[in-house]
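Bug #77: duplicate submission created two jobs. Keeping one. Sequence:
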Amino acid sequence: MDAFKAIQLTLELAGLTTALLLVIATPIAWWLSQSKSWLSSAVGAIVTLPLVLPPTVLGFYLLIAIGPQGFIGYLAQILGIESLAFTFSGLLIGSLIYSLPFAVQPIQHAFEALGDRPLEVAATLRASPTDAFFSIALPMAKSGFINAAILTFAHTIGEFGMVLMIGGNIPDKTRVISTLIYGHVEALEYTQAHWLAGGMLIFSFAILLCLNLLNRRATRVML
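Kept job's structure:
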């Protein structure tokens, strides 16, 4: 039963994180791909920071941020939420921040690959910037959104250090697949750990295979 509940929580966390990040990452990726401001370099560095920070460091500062004395925790108290630390909601906030670059970068690269020509043609046809974005940029960047969704979902499922720092390993509340594997290994329950770890290995391989096939197909279409 522990495994089924952990899988359910993991899928819920990955699904919500992916759906929310596709919405959040789109305007960020568009601005980064179009902006000529020096601020874009700083924002890009901030977005990319989770890629280079140790998960425990990011998890530690997020734990402080969502705690009673932290900024996010203070806002939560105003909204009547007692605590975010060691809850599923806290895990979701952490996952949104930790997986942000995996959503932003593929979409940004897809927008950059469009070039200026399609939008210039749309402008000559008197399309507003908003119309050009929704009718031209978004459809043409479809492969970037697919890659972002797959990478974000897979990365969220594989989270460990940040999840353990923010959510702990509470059964039926914050215990996900990665922390359940850790618990089995810690208890020397290698058989259970093998089943879960093997499933994660197969899942990760399938994700990478899908990405490679999609990218090869997109390259052939462009040629």
